[in-house]
Amino acid sequence: MTPITEVEGRRLALSNLEKVLYPATGFTKGEVLHYYATTAEVLLPHLRDRPVSFLRYPDGPDGQVFFTKNVPPGTPEWVTTAEVPRVEGPARMVFVQDLASLMWAANLVTEFHTPQWVIDAPGEADRLVFDLDPGSPATVVECCEVALWLRERLAADGIEAYAKTSGSKGLHLAATIRPASSERATEYAKDLAVEAEKALPRLAIHRMTKSLRPGKVFVDWSQNAARKTTATPYTLRARREPTVSAPVTWDEVESCRSPESLTFTAPDLAPRLQDHGDLLAPLLDTDGAGTLP
């Protein structure tokens, strides 16, 4: 029998709690739900008012993995939804605004992906992102070298960047900016990616062409486009282990000498939050927003 749980006055049916979703560690669906319940305080502010694209993996990473952008069938009426403009025409999408909605969405078994704008101003970027993706044999160690260059370059333009692991192989940089069109943010990010390639020719590349990427870090600037999304801070990823897109300090980036030093799984997050709080909290403070030149 599916247990019914009450969360903030909402009744939720949470299913298959003993199901193993991460075979490498035996991490279960119940543990996934516990992870989201205990990180909700820091996760929800990064989700709020942003339409969520779900990357679902209900049978674990070895099963079917698929994106869901439209409101899933059976979504409770109390979950916030809104019409969102998209290239192929407007669509109704989910907004995870509270703990009950988060636990309902987590029960679907999903990664959370969000755009760089909020629903009140679709297509007006309030965040700038860089997805640093290493081509083997490069790893997150090389991503850290590129991240440090980008941090200094952004600072020269009055933009303060923060880092998080992708939860996969790479590293993400994010910064809060004063609202600018997604087109302008994308153009600026591409310009910096090109500069990075020129400054670090043996390390960085701004083009997606796979044949050019072995041993280098692809500085993916394209996720600033209005239609694109990036893994939300603190989301679990559909990997063999329950890895997390985890905020990291710049000291950790500077001292990174092996991929293991910047690999974090769900059990790692509670002590990190106790020690650091939300390292990406400054992204929520518009007073510190930079202005694109």
TrEMBL record:
UniProt keywords, alphabetically: Ligase
Gene3D superfamilies (UniProt xref): DNA primase, PRIM domain (3.90.920.10)
GO molecular function: ligase activity
Domain DNA ligase D polymerase: 28-279
Signal peptide (from-to): none
InterPro entries linked: LigD_pol_dom (IPR014145), MtLigD_Pol-like (IPR033649), NHEJ_LigD (IPR052171)
Protein name in the entry: Non-homologous end-joining DNA ligase
Source organism per UniProt: Streptomyces osmaniensis
The encoding gene: ligD_2
